[in-house]
Amino acid sequence: MKRIFVFIVALLALVQLQAHAQTDSVQRYVSAALEIMKNRSVNRHRINWDSLCTDTYKRAAGLKTIKETYPVLKHALTALNDAHSNFYPPEQVEAYTLGYRATGQEFPVIKAKITDNNLAHIELPPIGCYHFAEWDELVNTFYEKITELQSHKPKGWILDLRGNYGGMWYPMLAAISPMLDQHQVIGTVDADGQYAFFDYRNGQLFEGGKAAHRFHVKKQPRPVTQPLVILVSKKTASSGEFCTIAFAGQKQVTVIGQTTQGLTSGNQEYKLADGAFLVLTTGNTVDRHKKEYNVVGQGVTPQVLLNDLSDEACLKAANDILSRHR
């Protein structure tokens, strides 16, 4: 009987120890996420952290597994009031890093053509993966399309961002770089007023002066020097808006269409203990003149507003504008 009693006591102690370890693990997980938010959020100086932390710990109290904390952390992110931060569980992160083809998705299609008026029309689609080989593929394909269009000696260019709802900014910046007239045309400013400009040169991308990513570029196209029209819509968001802002202040560039969605802030991925991503807004976008785009939902207003965003109407408007530059 003594042996059975001792065994039961030991078993109960083990169960209690495991339960305590799980609770401790959950608390540490939540605490780590809150610490990232507190240190890096673009709105960190506007948040009552005592209140937010107390509320978050209260919501997490009694939870047994890390997975159960996901809705709690998503709720905490909404309190940051940036409309752009998000939380991605490990299985979504895995698909995100495996890329399009490995997960059975269609790879983004880059459409390009010469119009009847001899204008080069190229679309930059959104790209939403963290697979570097596919980043290279997007950039190299975009460059090949530019080179092909240049062979027709176009009178002007149209960069179509109407369907670009965002995704990964680095490959998009690399793709449009031949169309930009100078370096460091876009950046972010954080909660302490510190600026970090992006720069892309010969396959190397820099952020705030630090090397951030290396692309494997097959052949860089010649710079695009002809007048340029950028097409945008209400669907144009996030990195699609960054592309638009990168041209702000560039000569012979006209933005036409409809006001963009208004997610003009920069995000950073932070990997948590179980592989989940805390995607946090760490800065607001600024253009080459340090104009800050910090109002959620305000978006970028085109120089020429169009009620009709059909291909026919957009191409006619673009042709009218580009013909005045000739």
Automatic annotation (TrEMBL):
Domain Tail specific protease per the UniProt entry, residue ranges: 89-307
Keyword Transport tagged: no
BP term (GO), one: proteolysis
SUPFAM superfamilies, per database record: ClpP/crotonase (SSF52096)
Pfam families found in the cross-reference section: Peptidase_S41 (PF03572)
Signal peptide: 1-21
Keywords carried by this UniProt record: Signal
Gene Ontology molecular function, alphabetical: endopeptidase activity; serine-type peptidase activity
Transmembrane segments: none
Domain of life of the source: Bacteria
Protein name: Peptidase S41-like protein
Native organism: Taibaiella chishuiensis
